[in-house]
Fold these 2 entries.
Entry 1:
Amino acid sequence: MLLNEVGLEGLTLRAIARELDVKAPALYWHFKDKQALLDEMATEMYRRMTAGAALDAGDTWRERLLKANRGLRAALLGYRDGAKVFSGSRFTGLVHAEQMEGNLRLLGAAGLTLPQAARALNTTYLYTLGFVTEEQGVEPLPGERREGFDLAERARLMAGFPLAAEAGKEIFEDYDRHFEEGLALLIAGIAARYGVD
Amino acid sequence: MLLNEVGLEGLTLRAIARELDVKAPALYWHFKDKQALLDEMATEMYRRMTAGAALDAGDTWRERLLKANRGLRAALLGYRDGAKVFSGSRFTGLVHAEQMEGNLRLLGAAGLTLPQAARALNTTYLYTLGFVTEEQGVEPLPGERREGFDLAERARLMAGFPLAAEAGKEIFEDYDRHFEEGLALLIAGIAARYGVD
DNA sequence: ACAGCGACTTAACAGCGTTAAGGAGTGGCT
DNA sequence: AGCCACTCCTTAACGCTGTTAAGTCGCTGT
């Protein structure tokens, strides 16, 4: 996809049009403006994400929250600036309503009230979005690090703040593990506060 | 502040320069490029936030996490697009290292290991940032709602998905309460998973 | 008196999202 | 057959953006 080559900043209407063998103003026949195009792009990303992994109705609520948020993160990481595209756009249509309905039903069957289920889903969703946004600020695509981001130099500058310096590796490295840990915290909190499991 | 009048999108170099009674290229004497200027602006926002509320060394770890994240949210809500400015920028200097050091020390004294304390702080931070980003997507400034966002219409469209429709009010209304609830979930998870108080 | 430097100006550039006006092709109606 | 209507696209242009180049003014130190 073009987004992965040029990033959100380079994703201009003229570049998109060139990709489609068309001139830029032709896009306005199909979309009201650029934001509408980005909304559609985010929706399509979401569609591919849910199509990739059908959900198991036999999941426990823990499994479902883990799967949904791991899947979301993986999908976002699949595109450069994926998280920014997502959080800057609103889905068109009802694609996401279907998955949400299923998740709410499953969490409800597990003993959560509807407000609790909604809060659990929304809170994990916002955490994941925030996490990947920061992650992609440092690693636009998995493996390639953004320039000017040197962990050793950061530690040297922070010599006067030893704990904060040491904490750097807990924040700017090993994103996979740290994402899991944060998600586990949230799930533990849901279990404890809502008395499920 | 100019940001509150025009939003991030309208925050052009020419507008900033006009505010300072100067022409746009003069800004390049003080900043390498626009991003450097935004970095400085985010740092200044952070400075004002921490200056506003000095932290109490006698806090429990729960109080500290609550205060820090409530304060962050309040600060972000104080500026239109505050969350986007924050998550798109990196702090200059060591302003934020000092507060981080204090928070890590307090959480350590409460019984958390350094990696646990770092994870607890970072996870709540990312949640708050994600939360306010979405919140400001719907309510740019407290009280004023973005156009085209009608909760009743959303419910009508989602008639086929009753749970998801009903969950709308758990997601798009009463942000204060829902922020608190999500934060409480995280704190409960930290207590449960890390075995503190 | 004059050089040097900091802080600014004017002028210009390529590129952006977007609008206006019009043209080529297709299908159906009379 | 002729013509209208419609879809989808083009070319041209607009005002705006971040940014660079080159030149100008006034202060400071020698």
Entry 2:
Amino acid sequence: MTQENRPSPQFKPLYEQVKELIIERIVGGVWKPGEVLPSEFQLADMLNVSQGTVRKALNTLTEENVVFRRQGVGTFVSKHTLQEMLFHFFRFKHHLGESADLPTADIIDLQIMGAEPKVALALNLASDDKVIRLHRVRIINGDPCIRELIYLPHHYFGDLHLEAALPHALYNFYQNTFNITIHNAVDSITADLSNATDAKLLNIEVGQPLLEVARVATALDGRLVEYSISRAHSKNLHYEVKIT
Amino acid sequence: MTQENRPSPQFKPLYEQVKELIIERIVGGVWKPGEVLPSEFQLADMLNVSQGTVRKALNTLTEENVVFRRQGVGTFVSKHTLQEMLFHFFRFKHHLGESADLPTADIIDLQIMGAEPKVALALNLASDDKVIRLHRVRIINGDPCIRELIYLPHHYFGDLHLEAALPHALYNFYQNTFNITIHNAVDSITADLSNATDAKLLNIEVGQPLLEVARVATALDGRLVEYSISRAHSKNLHYEVKIT
DNA sequence: AAGTGGTCTAGACCACCAC
DNA sequence: TGGTGGTCTAGACCACTTC
């Protein structure tokens, strides 16, 4: 890898090119979640750059949670099974007590269907594309408190709708089964009143205030891979945001 | 500044010490918001470290929005007047259209009072400490849509409650008038129903769903300096979170 | 032309971990 | 003991801004 003597047509720093190459190999399955990457010096030799340049690329990947590093051991591809990663994308917390147990989930419905306009827009799908819709209720400490509708493009998730038993940790499942790593997400939060369906599934009355979180999630390679609506009864829960 | 030959009692990297020294000087008013810092080499000479170590400190400060850098020009202390900084701490957005105009504000009430337990707990105050409470309504595109209750420790904000005209960009005001720079914040979001006061001030009916955002904000030096409750009618607004 | 931050390299030494 | 990442330094060269 060389920078060459070009003036500046779409100049990209070497460490960004290194970073992209590493992401490519993770996306391509060369290095799988949990596995160790070659050492800094090995990568530097492989790519014909200096160790310092590899270090800079790996450090930015560490900040983005793509890899994690352990001194004396090595650099590893992040897995969504890690506690920190699970709670990184699950932002509901109990009001007072520390972060609760991870929620379990009851599946209400799982089907393949045409993409509604709202869903097609969010996932940038054509109007005749199919999506898999998962409808489930999250249960925390025995209480049903969040109702989720999750939409996945059929062409990315193949036969997911035929799975006998879906685990409740979906992001980990996407990663293990489809090599799709959720990398970032945008949540849009509004308030709404519980309707009849909410009331029945969350065991509350109609007309209660609910938090509604609409999420669009993007994979490591930049594809839009999940649209979800979470409706939460906030009597015991809140959504927490740290602004830094 | 030296690392010395100590084994490892509370070892701190040089670049962190450099970073802390720079923050100290910003907090102390040596370098004020908008002003330029000495160059990397000047700082390196002042602190007896290498330019690379100063660079690392400045880069982390850049990521944390404490300073910003312009190639060929210099490194500057961040100001809350910058568009990006304003919207960094204001997370409400219009549903479809791009980010709206900055809101203005109508002040409903401004007084000094004893800290209620909830407020004292959030700001870590003693029960007999005084707080300044500002009650106002945010207006976006002519619509009153957010009602805010803002609590400030009296001993940090002195005579703020005597101000004739408070600007609506408060964080910029804190910075200019008290040299208090809001650095990070934790928002806890819940849903609630509008009460009589909400209804009157936001020009809606009682029993409508509202987003309630409780914020605890921390200054550059780590002091808890603001507790606020924002109650927003989410018909036209949502709260947006980018998880990366 | 001079000065700034941005990139890239090379090398030294340290702290941590596994064997 | 050997290999890993973590810190720190020194220096070269580039890109950008200002004068």
